[in-house]
Amino acid sequence: MQTNDLDQALLRRLAALRADRGKVLSIYLDLDPASFGTQPARSSQISSLIDEADRRARESDLPHAERIALREDVARVREFLRGDFSAKGAHALALFACGPAGLFEALRLPTSTASAVVINDKAWLDPLIGHDRCRRALALINRRTFRLFADGPTGQLEEVVATSDDVHGQHDQGGWSQPRYQRSVEEDVRDHIKRSMQALAAFHREHPIDLLAVAVVPERWSEVERGLAPELRDRCLGRFDVDVEHAGPDEALAAARPLFDAAEERRVAQLLERLHERLARNGDRAAAGLEPVLTALDEQRVESLLYESGFHAPGVACLNCGWIGPEASSGDVCPACGHRPERHENVLEDAISSALLQSARVVTLRDRPELGPLGGIAALLRF
């Protein structure tokens, strides 16, 4: 079962962290079973990443005390990775360490990400975008059984409801009693579906569901749809096929995966459609290109930040107040507070942090060309 330790609250907490002294060490470990499924392969990757982090710490031009603190962070990560940590259900691991800031965080992620070592003023969050949890649920229902899988505290799907009703089987004996018997069977099935939908609604009231997929035979789908609580209808992605009585959570999730992937594609397509509509209206509540987007972030106006995967642009950031700007705007003082800004090789990390801290949605576009003509970065604005 896939594990996910990341949620929006933790993502915002990492975005808010700034090391007044020293640097933040960010390490991403790819645990894709296809490439690193064996212990030797995983150990080799861990050794390579730790060696790279240690080399960068030793060769950094930081003040002596900060360089020592960074090497101590590397040692803590080495001890953790070579210890008894559990990567069960994870396809990637993200670690963040900064002794002077009291930070050490290890997050298991549900999908693989490229291995990397980054040393910066803040946690490197770009690979985490899109990995934060939403609460998924899979409802499996047939003529007598109802099972519900939902994401648990670590993002793993767990079976949370399992019920069975005594529904008579059909027979073919004929005679005057058969139509009455068949009507009785149909009533039993309808009652079972009704009770199942009531149990699903009760669970949702206690543990809100963000996205729902339903495994049910096509001939019963319309009946299930009608029985869904109104607050669940907009969250339901559709139906899929799986063995209702015997499938485990991994098998059920694999069968439902196309529904979740299609929902994400629709979500991104809708954001892009809104963006282009607003830009066509003389940029009404939209920004495109690095400088306009950074200005909107500085003004706390961003509703959604969109950028191409791999986007990279130099810029400047003020560690005192959080102001960010393109490299061309760098000067002796921050225009917002008068402190001296720092040059950053990639201002994307500052943009992501700023967006998260103003509760904006952050979306990475992978294998989509729409943002290319807009400079690779854009934003939908609140006002």
What is the strand tally? 16
The first-level CATH class name of the largest domain: Alpha Beta
CATH architecture field of the largest domain: 2-Layer Sandwich
Profile the largest sheet: 5 strands, mixed
Helix/strand-derived category reads: alpha+beta
Please describe what this structure looks like:
38% of the residues lie in helices and 22% in strands. Strand 5 (136-141) and strand 6 form a beta hairpin. The chain has helices spanning 8-16, 33-36, 39-59, 64-81, 177-206, 218-227, 230-233, 249-280, 290-298, 348-357, and strands at 24-30, 92-98, 103-109, 116-120, 136-141, 145-151, 157-164, 211-215, 236-240, 286-288, 302-308, 315-317, 324-326, 342-344, 361-365, 377-381. Helix 1 packs across helix 10 (348-357) and helix 3 runs antiparallel to helix 4. It is built from ten helices and 16 strands. The protein is globular and about 85 Å long. With 383 residues, it is α+β, with helices and mostly antiparallel strands. The two termini are 42 Å apart. A five-stranded mixed beta sheet has the order 7-6-5-8-9, with helices on both faces. It has a four-stranded antiparallel beta sheet with strand order 3-2-1-4, covered by helices on one side. The protein has three domains: 8-128, eRF1 domain 1 (Translation, Eukaryotic Peptide Chain Release Factor Subunit 1, Chain A, 2-Layer Sandwich); 136-267, Nucleotidyltransferase, domain 5 (2-Layer Sandwich), CATH 3.30.420.60; 285-381, 60s Ribosomal Protein L30, Chain: A. The model has no long low-confidence stretch (mean pLDDT 89).
